[in-house]
Write a structure and sequence with these properties.
Elements lengths: L13 E4 L6 E2 L2 E2 L3 H10 L3 E6 L6 H10 L9 E3 H12 L4 E5 L2 H9 L3 E2 L8 E4 L7 H13 L4 E4 L5 E3 L5 E3 L1 H12 L5 E2 L6 H7 L9 E5 L2 H10 L3 E5 L17 E3 L9
Parallel strand pairs: 1-4, 1-13, 4-5, 6-7, 6-8, 8-9, 9-12, 13-14, 14-15
Antiparallel strand pairs: 2-3, 10-11
């Protein structure tokens, strides 16, 4: 990646955006975000949204963005629901799954033909995710499948510690579920379906005939959004409306654009 000290990014053909902490916080659009994305679209750019959050379907995200003033189609959104289904179909076809997950991911896995089971003797893959219905019973099932029967593997939808909310608040995310399972079983999570792994990026760019240097990834988290882009040699912009503060941008992230809001993407 070449040095990009200038504050205003150049124009790209494809803009990839994280959602939570980048386009909105909770139910509130971040200042200038909707207007900036509309302007980029109006100028002819292609826009895709890539979210580690598996608690909503692309249809639900499209409806939310449309409600916030940004008309969006489900196929413009890629989440860890899609990458989890794709990864399991590719690497563990026919596996019996125990998703510690909310309904949208469970329904997508079932619709893809996977058997879902809470029988620890039958489970091949335990999936840790952002699950606000997490219980001790679910932890026990994962423990029995991984520690007692020793036949299952552990994967996670995403590595995020928490999901940012307005007012500096947040909600525990999939890292907490993963850590609980790893702590009691001694088993290590084998794969992550979310940023910074490349799966969301590949899914978002699939079908778009564009070279990497014409794409910009913008997000609020260095270790996920920005790391994924840099690993794929795609230009990156961190926006200080979520987790990251300017002082967090270390030399490991030298050359990325630094934005106070998505409005900084315009111009240039
Ligand atoms: Mg985010």
């Amino acid at each position: 990646m070449t040095a990009m000290p200038e504050r205003t990014p150049k124009r790209y053909d494809v803009y990839l955006f994280d959602l939570d902490g980048t386009v909105y916080l909770g139910e509130e659009a971040l200042p200038g975000a909707i207007e900036a994305i509309r302007a980029l679209r109006d100028a002819g750019a292609t826009v895709r949204f890539v979210s580690n959050n598996p608690t909503r379907t692309p249809e639900a995200y499209a409806a939310k963005l449309t409600r916030l003033g940004l008309p969006t189609r489900p196929d413009e959104i890629v989440t860890t629901i899609g990458t989890t289904v794709w990864w399991l179909r590719t690497y563990h076809p026919g596996a019996t799954l125990f998703p510690i997950a909310e309904a949208p991911l469970c329904e997508a896995l079932a619709a893809a033909g996977f058997v879902l089971s809470d029988d620890p003797a039958a489970i091949d893959v335990v999936i840790a995710s952002y699950d606000r219905t997490f219980t001790y019973a679910k932890l026990q099932t994962a423990f029995d499948a991984l520690w007692f029967h020793k036949r299952a593997i552990l994967i996670q939808t995403n590595p995020d510690r928490y999901c940012p909310f307005p007012g500096g608040r947040g909600e525990p995310d999939a890292a907490a579920i993963t850590a609980a399972i790893e702590a009691c079983t001694g088993v290590t999570c084998q794969a992550s379906m979310g940023k910074p792994a490349p799966w969301l990026l590949r899914a978002a760019l699939a079908g778009l005939d564009v070279p990497p240097e014409r794409c910009l990834m913008t997000g609020d988290r260095l270790a996920t959004d920005i790391r994924m882009a840099l690993d794929a040699r795609i230009d990156a912009a961190v926006v200080f409306t979520g987790e990251t503060r300017p002082e967090d941008v270390t030399d490991a992230y030298a050359g990325i654009y630094q934005l106070d809001g998505l409005g900084d993407l315009l111009g240039g």
